[in-house]
Amino acid sequence: MERVAIIGAGIAGLQLGRRLQGAGIAVSLFDKARGPAGRIATRRLDYGRFDHGAQYFTARDPVFAAQVEDWCARGVAARWTGRIVTLSGGAIEPEPSPVPRHVGVPSMSAMARDLATGADVRVGVRIASVRRTNARWGLVADDGQAFEGFDGLVSAVPAPQAAPFLASSTELGLHARCAQFDPCHALMIEFEEPVGADFDAAFVKDSAVGWVAREASKPGRAASNGWVVHSTAAWSRANVDRKAEEVHEVLRGAFAAALGGRLPGIRGAAVHRWLYARAAGPVVGAALWDGKFGLGVCGDWLRGDRIEDAFLSAERLADLMLASRERDELS
Q1: Please, is 134 exposed, middle or buried when counting C-beta atoms within 10 Å of its C-beta (0-12, 13-18, 19+)?
Q2: Which of 184, 190, 198, 273 is deepest in the core (most CB within 10 A)?
Q3: Residues with Cβ within 8 Å of residue 168, at least 6 apart in sequence
Q4: How many structural domains comprise the chain?
Q5: Of 199, 223, 231, 224, nearest in space to 213 by CA
């Protein structure tokens, strides 16, 4: 196994690439977006910068905790000490047991850029199909461009997008088809004046909105009146194809209702729909590597729905692929 192609340059794909490259394997990553990040992407608009995907991350496993410690030591990430509460019927409830939360600096996508250092990451390339010929993998982009000669292929995108790339392996394809995801709508909104809220972020109950966060409360951010508002999974499932302007109206109204008052005037706003925002649950016992076909899969959906799950999924797949290569060399 000398060359491996990875479809998807989020945390899982990037960490897998880093591990394989460190073992002497040539890795090429392909992603349809304009830059590496996946769901830790940052959106830059005329009126501000917004972490419109993953809002923060936690570290429980010692392997990921060591990575977070390294990021913090190098200024790639930092502890977020903002006041996070629960909003329920206009009442503010403090967290009973706050957990340590971290964010990328100066944006969530900083960790992706760090993991991509020195990697062959080809962005703006949407892989449409894959093929296996003479024990080698080839990839074809939607514009017809072909990439050939890979000994291994890994899908590191959400399961519904991964399924077509895993068709050669009955087991891996089945895992991808069984996974379920919840959508989420993100409203990025810059107000003309500060929002009168005695908190920096909140989980919201009994609302179309599930989460709100003040962008400037996170370390390394510029001063702003920007907020990110996330819908609940239930609301997005019921309104998945709603027009952006209608989503904006509903979520802004729900944010105001949760605060129990009016919001300031708006300087600018945009909506993004995350169709595969969060895995509805881990795919228990899922295989990650089919050595017969040199085909693998990784991503948070195989373990849970957190950034840590994506990282650890990549770690596990790297171990399996490197062990497989060692067995092949010995045989």
Answers
A1: exposed
A2: 184
A3: 132, 290, 293, 295
A4: 2
A5: 199
Question: 72: left (phi > 0), else alpha (psi -120 to 50), else beta?
Answer: alpha
Residue with tokens 């940052």: 42
Per residue in 193-226, pLDDT tens?
Answer: 999 999 999 999 999 999 999 999 999 999 999 9
CATH number at residue 210: 3.90.660.10
- Residue 312 φ/ψ, nearest 5 degrees: -70, -30
Q: Which residue matches tokens 């499932």?
A: 237
Calculate ∠ Cα 227-108-129, nearest 5°: 110
- Give the tokens for residue 289: 């590597």
Domain boundary among 237, 259, 279: 279
pLDDT tens digits, one per residue of 3-35: 999 999 999 999 999 999 999 999 999 999 999
Same domain for 272 and 290, yes or no, is no
